[in-house]
Each structure stands twice: as C-alpha cells, then as structure tokens.
C-alpha cells in the first residue's frame, strides 16, 4: 500500500508538470511557430487579439460527437474554434478547467460563430454516452460546444501532431486511470481556415486566478476577432460577383436603350441610358473600394495562371477593358450633358462613338470576372 501511494503521488506530480506544458517523453515539444523543417519552434505563442500570426494547419480528422454523429475538419471550417484536450476520469485539471471554460469563455461566445471542441484523450472509456454525461455535468446543452471521441491512436496523434499539445500515457498498472494520462493545458485557437492562431494557458500551475481568467478571456476575444474578420472577408469576397453583375446589368440596359431609340421611344431610351449610367457609377464606386480597401487585406489581386496564348489573350482582354474604361468615362459624361442641353446633333455624334466603347467595357468586365474566378487554370 505504501508503494502504491508513493506511485500515485509521483503520478500526480507528473500530471501537474505535464499539464503546465513541460515536454514529456513521446510528446511534442512546446507548441509554437512551425519552422522550415516542419518542427515546432520552442516557446509558447499566445498572439494578441488582432494579430495576423498563424501557425501550422490542423490535419484532417474524423471523430464521433456525443450525439453519435461523425464530425470532420470540414464541418468546422468557416468559423473559429477552440480545441480542448480532456478526459472524464481525469484527477488533474480537466474538471476545474472545463468548469472555468464554461463560466468564463462559453458565455462570451453567445451570438458568435465560434465553437468550443473538446477532444477526449481517453476515448476507450469516454464513449458518446460518457461525453453526454460530462456535458450535462457542466450544463452544456447546445452545439456551440462539441465533445469528441474516437480511435485512441488516431486521437493521440491528432492531439500531439495536429494540435501541437503535449500528451503522454503511462502503462504503470499501479496508477489510477485518472492519473495515467497527462496532457498540456495550453489550448489552441483555430482560425476559420483551419490554421492554429495561438495557444493560451488555461490551467497552468504558478499562475494566479486573475492571470488564468485573463488568459481565457484573451483566448475568447482572439476567437471572436477571427470570427469577425473572417465574416468581413467573406462579405468582401462577394464584391467581384457584385462588380461583374453591375457590369452585366449596365450592358443589358445599354442594349435595351439602343432598341428603344431605334423604335422611336425617346423617353424610354433616356430613362434606360440614365439607369445604365447610374449602374456603371455604382460599379465604379464598388471597384475603387474593392481595390483600395479590400485587396490590400487579402494579399493582392487574383492572378491569372494561364500561359502562352491564353495568357496573351487575357492580357489583351484586361488591357483593353481598363484602357477603354478610363477613356469612356468622360465620353459618357459629355454625351449625357449634351442630351441634357438638348443639343441633339452633337449628342448623336458623341453617342455613336461612346456607345460601342461603353458596351464593350460592360461586357468585358463580365468576361474578366469569369476568366479569373471560373476559367482560371489551377496554378
């Protein structure tokens, strides 16, 4: 009995050490930036809320949620999530850390897309039923917090290699099950594209209560900022579609305007041409905003990856579109001004030259969009 007590005491010490993220035998080194050779750089990375720093991408996985449904990485892409290694029999920090996360982090994520995902590192014991009881214990009732189990080997590799969180298991039969598994408590935040955006200590020894709560709040705010920035980026990503649509609408209005004047319907012609001008003006505003405010944040414009004749044809298409768009604007304004003054002779002279350029610019604007976003070869 004395030897067993000593063994358990040592195991508890090991659990404490590992749970503050000291490297352990068979586990990865401290989580951090990934170096050129794919190995983690020593040190702990806890970026600020708005940091652009990203680390390694999380690999594919397929585990079972407490509901019995299979959950894969693809199911989580598109929104940030916080990964939480734990196990239900843990006699170390798992219960208190889960309780703190429920009290400090979970409420902050209401009305956001951020999820919390707990990964059982004792999946042979933590069945979906056990996970359901664990969730109920901490009053987690919705799908904003998921609890996953699965194959023991796959889960271990995912936590160590994928999440870069230290994890070790002892085969000492004298140890109680709740002390046989040790893992770090620096929790990774994963961005909507599946990249680790930092690790945050949530149960480390030697930290005050205020420091731990501060870390948890920082972790939550980091995830919320990622959610907000990804939402803005996603909204901005529809601007190429909006711009192409505006060009297409302008082209349709121009054709309808030509048909109207050929049919002698001058008032309809005037209304259609004014509408085409307003749509083109809206396109210009959206285009300038996209290129000055959105593209710099997205790392620059989309590049055409074609080669040879395809590349040459695209450059001709783009070059003539941009050049004639610049030339066309003052011509359109001049033509509309002459119509406003009812100087019909000069208006017709300018219209015969302005109209084909205006229509060409509108049509090629749509073509440029399709070439870049739908017909662009894979690099």
Tell me what the structure shows.
The protein has 379 residues and is of the alpha+beta class. It folds into two domains: 2-236, Glutaredoxin, CATH 3.40.30.10; 239-373, Up-down Bundle (Four Helix Bundle (Hemerythrin (Met), subunit A)). The protein is 52% helix and 11% strand. It is built from nine helices and nine strands. The chain has helices at 2-19, 94-104, 128-137, 152-162, 209-236, 239-262, 266-298, 309-340, 344-373, and strands spanning 62-65, 70-72, 81-86, 115-120, 145-149, 167-169, 181-183, 186-190, 196-201. The strands form two sheets. Strands 2-1-5-4-3-8-9 form a seven-stranded mixed β-sheet, sandwiched between helices. A hairpin with a 5-residue loop joins β8 (186-190) and β9 (196-201). α8 runs antiparallel to α9 (344-373). The longest helix is centred in the C-terminal third of the chain and has 33 residues, at 266-298. The protein is elongated, with a radius of gyration of 30 Å. It starts with a helix and ends in a 6-residue tail after the last helix.
Please describe the biggest sheet, giving its number of strands, its sense, and whether it closes into a barrel. 7 strands, mixed
Distance between the termini: 66 Å
> How many domains make up the 3D coordinates?
2
Counting DSSP E segments of at least 2 residues, the number of strands comes to: 9
Strand content of the residues, in percent? 5-15%
Would you list the SSEs in sequence order as H and E? HEEEHEHEHEEEEHHHHH
């Amino acid at each position: 009995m004395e030897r067993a007590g000593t063994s358990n005491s040592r195991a508890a010490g090991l659990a404490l050490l590992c749970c503050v993220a000291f490297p352990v035998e068979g586990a990865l080194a401290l989580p951090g930036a990934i170096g050129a050779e794919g190995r983690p750089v020593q040190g702990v990375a806890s970026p600020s809320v708005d940091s652009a720093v990203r680390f390694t991408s999380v690999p594919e996985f397929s585990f079972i949620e407490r509901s019995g449904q299979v959950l894969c990485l693809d199911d989580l892409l598109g929104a940030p999530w916080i990964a939480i290694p734990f196990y239900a029999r843990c006699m170390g920090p798992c219960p208190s850390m889960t309780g703190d996360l429920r009290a400090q982090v979970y409420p902050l994520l209401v009305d956001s897309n951020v999820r919390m995902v707990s990964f059982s590192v004792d999946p042979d014991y933590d069945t979906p039923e056990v996970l359901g009881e664990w969730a109920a214990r901490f009053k987690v009732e919705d799908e904003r917090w998921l609890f996953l189990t699965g194959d023991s080997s796959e889960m271990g590799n995912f936590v160590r290699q994928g999440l870069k969180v230290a994890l070790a298991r002892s085969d000492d039969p004298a140890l109680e099950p709740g002390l046989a598994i040790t893992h770090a408590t620096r929790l990774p935040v994963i961005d909507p594209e599946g990249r680790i955006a930092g690790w945050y200590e949530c149960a480390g020894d030697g930290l005050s209560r205020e420091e731990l709560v501060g870390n948890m709040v920082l972790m939550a705010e980091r995830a919320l900022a990622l959610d907000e920035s990804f939402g803005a980026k996603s909204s901005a990503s529809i601007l190429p579609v909006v711009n192409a649509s505006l060009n297409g609408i302008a082209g349709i209005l121009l054709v309808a305007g030509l048909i109207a004047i050929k049919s002698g319907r001058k008032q309809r012609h005037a209304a259609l041409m004014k509408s085409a001008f307003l749509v083109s003006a809206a396109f210009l505003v959206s285009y300038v905003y996209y290129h000055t405010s959105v593209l710099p944040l997205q790392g620059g414009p989309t590049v055409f990856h074609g080669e040879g004749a395809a590349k040459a044809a695209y450059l001709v298409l783009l070059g003539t579109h941009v050049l004639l768009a610049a030339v066309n604007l003052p011509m359109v304004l001049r033509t509309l001004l002459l119509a406003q003054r009812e100087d019909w002779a000069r208006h017709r002279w300018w219209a015969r030259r302005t109209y084909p350029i205006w229509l060409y610019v509108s049509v090629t604007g749509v073509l440029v969009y399709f070439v870049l976003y739908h017909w662009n070869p894979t690099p």
